[in-house]
Fold EamA family transporter.
Amino acid sequence: MVPLALATSLLWGLADFGGGLLTRRMPALTVVVISQALAAAVLGVIVVATQAWQEAGGRLWFAVAAGLIGPVAMLCFYRALALGPMGVVSPLAGTAVAVPIGVALFLGERPDTAQYTGILIAFTGVILAGGPEFRGAPVRRQAMTYTLVAAFGFGATLALIAEASTTVTGLFLALFVQRVCNVVTGGAALFVSARRGSPVLPEGGRAVVMSAMPALTFVGLADVAANATYALAARIGPVTVAAVLASLYPVVTTLAALGVLRERLRAVQAAGAGLAVAGTLLLGSG
């Protein structure tokens, strides 16, 4: 379970970093729709090859719900990444872990003392990493608002996709349905945005989009793979532990932003990131 949950954090962290960079070059809705459409196309091939459609059942409604919520969360998150430092926005988005943990506790799951301690330490670290920005400039406050909305949406998606299937082939079908709903919802929003005069294509037009296709494909597929590894991890081990281990993805995004974009963190934010890692390691050893 631990390797799967940590793989989730790595994949989500890299996908978030790539998505954040892309939204600095083109509209966030365009990034969401294209990346999810590419992922849906690949999943469609997998569903046909594995005959996963035979797993269709009532649980797919969880995937539909995740697919409707997901584009809103991704749009808010990408806008936040475009407005604020990735090294701050991404850790604060890690508060999404509160939703699946809350659901698991409500359903009767009870972590042991060490796991509760790890959850508390990791969650405190995430808050410290993002909290100072609430006192910053208006654009930073706007970025944090977007981030909190995205965090709730991500958390709800995690809880829903974990319930969407009971088999591996069923998971392929659930992820395909989720992505199709993502594309439909995001496409409708993109259409409305275009009707209101907002740009659909970046400056430079289709040539910029075509040049970004490898990155868009990576973002879409990494997000799909992360959902898959998380669903498997949540099925194998306690959801409370799997969710917190998966929430380590902000550290990946933060490290990428530090290394590639040369972003700098405040001391309290660095301490928060360290606490998040410490709490996650405690969970992993529990």
Notes: The chain has a mean pLDDT of 80. The CA atoms of residues 258 and 264 lie 7 Å apart. The chain has one domain: 2-285. The first helix runs from residue 2 to 22.
